[in-house]
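User: Sequence for VOC family protein below. Tokens please.
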Amino acid sequence: MTTSVVSIVYVNDAPAAARFYGDLLGMRPSFETPGYITFDLGPGADLALWSGQFEDLSPDVPRASEVCLAIGGGPGEINAIFKQWQSEGVTILHEPHDAGFGLTFLAADPDGNRIRVAPRD
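Assistant: Structure tokens for VOC family protein:
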């Protein structure tokens, strides 16, 4: 059986969110409709941005999940990404710190969805 895991992030404006995530990931969408856009993250993994499912998503509403970008290259690479995102005005929720599994930091997209950058296992 072939399995694909699609992580869905609910957003207010899928095209605007796709520009944000495309810049962060350094890639272009693999599939686009006006309200549903995906990024192919590799074999069996996609990130989907879906608008129109909830009205007026607010960054003020607490989130219980995260998109985690697992990074190779160690703490130096994670710190470099943090500095780049910070200089680009990405909202940082928690600066780099050791969370027991390695250096990590937490950011948010414009809709308030959480994005964690952490070391690859």
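The chain has two helices and eight strands.
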